[in-house]
Design goal:
Structural class: alpha/beta
CATH superfamily: Aldolase class I
Strand order of the largest sheet: 7-6-5-4-3-2-1-8-9
Number of domains: 1
Helix content: 25-40%
Radius of gyration: 20 Å
CATH architecture: Alpha-Beta Barrel
Largest sheet: 9 strands, mixed
Cofactor: [4Fe-4S] cluster
Keywords: 4Fe-4S, Iron, Iron-sulfur, Metal-binding, S-adenosyl-L-methionine
Protein name: TIGR04053 family radical SAM/SPASM domain-containing protein
Strand content: 5-15%
GO molecular function: 4 iron, 4 sulfur cluster binding; catalytic activity; metal ion binding
CATH topology: TIM Barrel
Order of helices and strands: EHEHEHEHHEHEHEHHEEHHHHEEE
Distance between the termini: 48 Å
Shape: globular
Pfam family, one: Radical_SAM
Number of strands: 12
Number of helices: 13
Length: 369
C-alpha cells in the first residue's frame, strides 16, 4: 500500500449519520436520535466510494456515526466498497442495533473489522459514560457475536479524567475478548466532550509510556488517536533501551495527524481533516474526495510541518510527531498551534507554553506572562 500521505490517507472516515440512541459524554457529533434530512444518499455514498477507490487498492474506510447501523443501506454500502477493493470497517454504537443477524449480513458483505467502544471496565462505569443503562452488556454481546460471524473486533477507549483509572482493567478486557486492536483516543474537547476533564500533559506522557509497555506484552495491536506525541514517547524510550529498529519504524509508519494521513467525510458531505477538527475543505457533492484531500489548501497546509507554530514549530520531533492539530484547533482556533497535551519543551525554546499562561524565559526557566 502507498504510504505517501500527500497522495492518500491511511484512514478515511465516513460519518454515515449523526443519529444515535446513546448520549455519550464525549460525543464529538453531539448526536441525537433523529437522522438529518440532508445526509448523503445511498447513490451519493456509492459515488463517494467510487471516488475513494481512486486512492488505490486496499484503502481503509471506516463507516461511523452517530450509529451507522441506524441506516438500512449499510450492508449494501459495505458490499459495494468491498467490490471496489476498499477495506470496509464499521464503528457501531453499543446498542441493540448490533444484532447477530445484522453482523452475519455484514460479514457476508465483506466487512473487514468492527470497532466497539469500551470506556469502563464495569457496567456501571461504562454505562455512566455512555449515558445508557445496558450499553456495556450490549457491547460485550456485540463483540462476541462479531467474532462468531468471523469479523475481527477492535476496541476503542477514550482517555480523560473520568476513564483514567479504568485503563488497566479495560486492557484486561481487551485481551479476554480476543480483540485484534486496542485504539486509545485522547480526548479532544469538542461537542459534548467539552464537558469532560482532560488529563494533564505529564499524565498523558505517563499513560503513553504505559501503553508502549502494553504494546510489547499483549497479543493485540495498539494504536493511539489524537495523540501523535506517543511516537515521540516511544522514540525517546527506544533510544534509552535496546528496542528494535523495526518497532520504531512501525510507530513512525502508522502515525498520522488530522489532514496528513487522515480525512473525514461528514454526514452531509463536507470533508474535514478530522472529525475533531471541524474546518471544511469543501464537499464531496461538488468535488471528488481525492481532489479535496490532495489539493485543498487546508489539507496541504496541515501536511507541511514547517507551518507549525510555538514549541511544536521548533520541536526536533515535529516530523515524527506533529502534535494533535485537532486539539490545537479546539484550544486556540489555529490548527498550526502547539498541542496543549504535550509536556515536551525543546532545548533552547523561548516562548509560550500551550498548557498554561506561562512561558519559557531566555534563561530556560518558566515564568508568568
Amino acid at each position: 500500500m502507498d504510504l505517501d500521505t500527500a497522495n492518500r490517507p491511511l484512514v478515511l472516515i465516513w460519518e454515515l449519520t449523526q443519529a444515535c440512541g446513546l448520549a455519550c459524554d464525549h460525543c464529538r457529533a453531539d448526536a441525537r436520535p433523529g437522522r438529518h434530512p440532508d445526509e448523503l444518499s445511498t447513490e451519493e455514498g456509492k459515488a463517494l466510494l467510487e471516488d475513494t477507490a481512486g486512492f488505490g487498492d486496499g484503502q481503509l474506510v471506516v463507516l461511523s456515526g452517530g450509529d451507522p447501523l441506524v441506516r438500512d443501506d449499510v450492508e449494501e454500502l459495505v458490499a459495494y466498497g468491498t467490490d471496489l477493493g476498499l477495506r470496509m470497517t464499521i464503528t457501531p454504537s453499543g446498542t441493540r442495533s448490533v444484532t447477530a443477524d445484522r453482523l452475519d449480513r455484514l460479514a457476508d458483505a465483506g466487512l473487514a473489522r468492527m470497532a466497539i467502544s469500551l470506556d469502563g471496565a464495569t457496567p456501571a462505569a461504562h454505562d455512566a459514560f455512555r449515558g445508557e443503562r445496558g450499553s456495556f452488556d450490549e457491547t460485550i454481546r456485540a463483540a462476541r457475536d462479531a467474532r462468531d460471524a468471523g469479523i475481527p473486533v477492535q476496541v476503542n477507549t477514550t482517555v480523560c479524567r473520568e476513564t483514567l483509572g479504568q485503563l488497566p482493567a479495560i486492557r484486561a478486557l481487551v485481551r479476554e475478548m480476543g480483540a485484534v486492536m486496542w485504539s486509545v483516543f485522547f480526548l479532544v474537547p469538542i461537542g459534548r466532550g467539552r464537558l469532560l476533564e482532560s488529563i494533564d500533559p505529564a499524565e498523558a506522557d505517563a499513560v503513553m509510556a504505559w501503553l508502549d509497555d502494553v504494546s510489547e506484552r499483549e497479543p493485540f495491536g495498539l494504536k493511539t488517536t489524537e495523540a501523535p506525541q506517543y511516537r515521540r514517547v516511544v522514540a525517546q524510550r527506544a533510544s534509552r533501551t535496546t528496542r528494535s529498529e523495526n518497532r520504531t519504524n512501525v510507530e513512525r509508519r502508522t502515525g498520522i495527524v488530522a489532514g496528513d494521513g487522515f480525512a473525514f467525510v461528514g454526514h452531509t458531505g463536507d470533508v474535514f481533516p478530522s472529525g475533531f477538527l471541524p474546518s471544511s475543505a469543501g464537499s464531496v457533492r461538488d468535488r471528488s474526495i481525492t481532489e479535496l484531500y490532495r489539493r485543498s489548501p487546508l489539507f496541504r497546509s496541515l501536511r507541511n510541518r514547517d507551518r507549525l507554530e510555538g514549541k511544536c514549530g521548533v520541536c526536533p520531533y515535529r516530523q515524527l510527531c506533529g502534535g494533535s492539530r485537532s486539539r490545537a484547533f479546539a484550544r486556540t482556533g489555529n490548527p498550526h498551534a502547539s498541542d496543549p497535551l504535550c509536556p515536551y519543551v525543546p532545548d533552547g525554546y523561548e516562548g509560550p507554553l500551550p498548557w498554561s499562561d506561562r512561558r519559557v524565559g531566555t534563561d530556560g526557566t518558566v515564568a508568568d506572562d
